[in-house]
Amino acid sequence: MDSEAIIDLSNLLNRLPIIPIAKRNDTFRNTAGVSSQLSRFLWSLKYNEKHANIGRIFTIIYEEYKERPGELHEIAQAIRRNESVIRQVGFGASEEADGFPEGAILCHLHRHLEHQQGFQFKNRVAQCAICCVRVDHIYGSLPNVQFLEPHLLVPPTEISPDMTYVEEYFIMVCPNCHSILHQIRPWRNRKTYVNILQTL
Ligand SMILES: [Zn+2]
Ligand SMILES: [Zn+2]
Prior knowledge:
Oligomer: single chain
Number of domains: 2
Strand order of the largest sheet: 1-2
Largest sheet: 2 strands, antiparallel
Bound molecules: zinc ion
Number of helices: 8
């Protein structure tokens, strides 16, 4: 990459809302950093060995897209193309309320905790904790298809930075049940979530 392209990329990474501003230091994604990360990545490719001082995300993305570089390019192009829109969508924009009576900010936080914590759990279950639907009963066995979503049972108004969101705080649910759980109040906890089902 020539120096103009490095400057352009560094500027773009600084403009995009990828890392909270409070977590950025003075050298955040500056040209020197971007340039050295890219050279280390090229070094890793050349010697087929991960450079010690390179972000893990480089390897993850490379492994995922090495056979399909065109798709990665399309993603990058879409981000560049939509930059002005992306920058207008703030944390907890109104469209993120997603049925939450508590509003967009707490909904965003709830979703964030689910994504950050929930997908790392070891206990993979096959059926929705509410309606018991099983993806393999409908679609057969589809490798790598993530159907169930982790749902955080802690009520939005009780979320606190002091909490550690261990696996017991979550249930795995299908997208339909997840959407309903987000909209009904009082918030369902571990004892009451099954009551959501209508019993004839
Ligand atoms: Zn369900
Ligand atoms: Zn949820």
